[in-house]
Amino acid sequence: MLETLSTRTAFENRFVTLREDAVRLPDGSESVYAYIARPRYAIAAAVEDGEIWMVEQWRHPLRRRTWELPMGVAPGGDAIPVEEAARIELREETGVTALTWRYVAEVAPAPALVAQTGALFLATGLTLGPQQLEDTEQDLVARPWPVERAVAAAVEGEILDAVSASCLMRLRLMGEI
Description:
Nucleoside Triphosphate Pyrophosphohydrolase, 2 domains, NUDIX_hydrolase-like_dom_sf
């Protein structure tokens, strides 16, 4: 285990904080550990009649569009209950609202690099309304996929996002989809 000697913010904007910790290693030597800090986020698996809602959007670091489950950090970050964040993200990105919400699991997208976890929720009893996209989501495409296609796409690598793929696999193995 590392002992944290000090922490400093190396960079911060409205999307991300880069922190550097001075740490003592198990052998007694000192080093610097840099990582990204972000608020907890929510993942909404909205399922009905054998279909699951997916979103496609541009991911600039990858320089490509990717298909993912609806997810994100709601305005207010950690100040908002994570289930409410799931409701907000699903409604914004897809226009879908759900009658029933159930917490499924917590995930860590990149625990060696990012101090952030996400909470996966299963949403059912769906009603479709208008999307409420944020300014950075104007090119987002949302549509339901057959569950079998989504699971196959996760297995075959068509769904590149590791959080979405792992959540789809977890839901499948649990018998939820």
